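Case 148 in the screening queue. Each case pairs one protein sequence with one candidate compound; here the compound is MU-OXO-diiron. For every case the pipeline is the same: read the inputs, emit a complex structure as tokens, and attach any notable structural observations.

Predict complex for case 148.
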Amino acid sequence: MGLFDWIFGKKKKDYLIEWEDRYSVGIIEIDAQHRRLFEIYNNLIEAMYQGVGVKELGNALNELLEYAVVHFMTEEGYMQKYGYPGYDAHKNVHKEFRERFYGLHKEFHEGKPVLTAEVTEYLRDWLKNHVLNMDQKYAPHLKKAGAR
Ligand code: FEO
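Case 148 output:
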């Protein structure tokens, strides 16, 4: 049992995101980024369960935020390039997540105990549901328009 088993009341595997084919949008660069995003998120969970120090946990959180920002920019670039009609709505959802994450990140670095079970579940569920639902919606349009 790690430190966070008690706090979360759940096993680590309940928090980890394992890549499955259903997450694939069929565009090589985006699939690679989603895999990497899950990997970085999983590294954060591993760090929490290993009970690493605040500095290391902060680094893991920074990495996830930074990579999410890079990924959103890449994905929005594809949507713009291929004229996806849902671009504005999708971009707004990215923005809302980014702003919430920036807030959490700021509070963490101010020393507040933000990495609770609720926040961790929010991150996990947001990542999984976003890739499975909203990201899947642009896939047919982008592929039809020539994205590979
Ligand atoms: Fe893959 Fe819309 O984030």
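Case 148 observations:
- Residues 34, 71-72, 75, 90, 94, 130-131, 134-135 surround MU-OXO-diiron (CB under 6 Å).
- The radius of gyration is 16 Å.
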